Amino acid sequence: MSFIAFITISTLVIAGLFHFYWAFGGKVGLDKAIPTKDGKALLNPGKLLTIIVGFIILGFAGIAYTLNLKNFHLISYSEQVVYTGWFLSLIFAIRSIGDFNMVGLFKKIKSTKFAEFDSKYFIPLTSFWSITFALLAYRV
User: Residue 20's Cα: distance from chain center in Å?
Assistant: First the structure.
């Protein structure tokens, strides 16, 4: 397994597991993971939605794993896997850029815990995922 794929898969699995942790009542990091304005959460995802997001993120790790195996010619693969890699690269790039309000490089709300963590950790992480999915999808 390539180092880039290993780091990508590992960080995605950790992100997915955090969502399960939060869905089942965990509080650590939750205040830094949900955007707020004037002390009020701008998102209020329920338990089921948080679990679904956790599974989706684990699915992204599976796509990275499959792309990595494809690159070493260890599996036969469908073109759909490559297209999915490019799609995820685009999705993570869009997340890095943000919504021009509460998340991303061009956010307006910059004085909350979430905004601080978004700038320090989430934007670099989603930018990294965008680049790595593009690299994994590109190497044929």
Answer: 14
> Could you tell me if 101 and 37 are in contact, meaning their C-beta atoms sit under 8 angstroms apart?
no
Q: How is 76-89 classified by DSSP, letter by letter?
A: ---HHHHHHHHHHH
Q: Strand, coil or helix: what is 40?
A: strand
Output the CA–CA distances (angstroms, integers) from residue 98 to 1, 60, 64, 69, in the order listed: 31, 20, 23, 31
User: d(Cα 108, Cα 91) in Å, to the nearest integer?
Assistant: 21
DSSP E strand boundaries for 1-123: 36-37, 40-41
Q: Could you report the per-residue pLDDT of 106-120, keeping only the tens digit for each?
A: 999 888 999 999 999
> Alpha-carbon distance 26 to 23, whole Å?
7
Q: Nearest 5 degrees, angle CA 123-CA 28-CA 31?
A: 55
